[in-house]
């Protein structure tokens, strides 16, 4: 029952399904054993350790793509609070900062739930990484004034052709990056790739409660009776992605060939 209910909580993010399936398999194989709780705990801790190790490798691969003095833009939270530790896109920033490569991080506040303001800004401040929090739609001016050298975002699910789902607002950043010829990097572990999906139109997009838009954190801005549409994610075409940064290395186009090849290695 718990397995089924947990699967329903986040239909877009494939990592949750991967971890649940792995834990469910261990459960099925050891269901009759008296030490089942200890076995499940050891497997969960192993998953945690593997995730941190993958994040550290991702950080090294990603930092290798950045130059000294880089000013990077990111959205949502992709740090230790969103992973087993270190982070994906924010993990790359952490590693690059330790190598003296980061001049400034611009973090989108990420409406309507404000993961960028509440979580990413907290992690950046805690690590002493220079940053500025920006309203999501300030990104356009940031690009036009040539204040961004690279965009680093996470991914909740990546299709076989490179289309990917990530926090709402990511697609806009990808279009801006292409228009202004700024590298757009997607940072994700191999468990975020779903080779069963040929393209992004097949990725389910979670829709969240209207009240998150109408009355965020209990503070109502919209008039009574107003309705809202609140998708949690958007789908960015793979053709806008400069490269995917994974624990297996950097993957570049053509993604319909390079993604399956990289993941099979």
Can you describe this structure?
The chain has helices at residues 2-9, 14-29, 36-63, 89-98, 115-127, 139-144, 170-179, 211-214, 255-264; strands at 70-74, 102-108, 131-134, 150-153, 157-158, 164-167, 184-187, 233-236, 243-246, 249-251. The chain is α/β, with parallel strands linked by helices and 265 residues long. It has one domain (52-264): 3-Layer(aba) Sandwich (Rossmann fold). Helix 2 packs antiparallel against helix 3 and helix 3 (36-63) packs across helix 4. The model has no long low-confidence stretch (mean pLDDT 95).
Strand order of the largest sheet: 3-2-1-4-7-9-10
Radius of gyration: 19 Å
| Uncertain stretches | none
Query: Do you know the CATH architecture?
Result: 3-Layer(aba) Sandwich
């Amino acid at each position: 029952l718990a397995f089924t209910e947990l699967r329903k909580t986040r239909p877009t993010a494939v990592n949750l399904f991967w971890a649940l399936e792995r834990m469910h398999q261990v459960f099925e194989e050891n269901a009759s054993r008296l030490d089942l709780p200890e076995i499940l705990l050891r497997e969960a801790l192993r998953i945690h350790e593997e995730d941190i190790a993958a994040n550290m490798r991702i950080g090294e691969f990603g930092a290798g793509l950045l130059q000294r003095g880089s000013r990077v833009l990111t959205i949502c939270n992709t740090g230790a609070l969103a992973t087993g530790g270190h982070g994906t896109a924010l993990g790359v920033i952490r590693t690059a900062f330790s190598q003296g490569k980061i001049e400034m991080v611009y973090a989108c506040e990420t409406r309507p739930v404000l993961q960028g303001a509440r979580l990413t800004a907290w992690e950046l401040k805690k690590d002493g990484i220079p940053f500025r929090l920006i309203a999501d739609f300030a990104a356009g001016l940031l690009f036009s004034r040539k204040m961004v050298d690279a965009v680093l975002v996470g991914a909740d699910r990546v299709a076989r052709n490179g289309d990917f789902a990530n926090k709402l607002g990511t697609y806009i950043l990808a279009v801006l990056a292409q228009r202004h010829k700024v590298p757009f990097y997607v940072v994700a572990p191999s468990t975020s790739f779903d080779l069963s999906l040929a393209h992004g139109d097949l990725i389910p997009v979670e829709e969240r409660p209207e009240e998150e838009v109408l009355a965020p954190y209990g503070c109502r801005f919209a008039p009574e009776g107003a309705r809202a549409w609140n998708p949690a994610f958007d789908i960015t075409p793979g053709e806008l992605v400069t490269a995917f940064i994974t624990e297996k290395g950097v993957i570049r186009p053509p993604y319909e060939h390079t993604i399956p090849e990289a993941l099979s290695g």
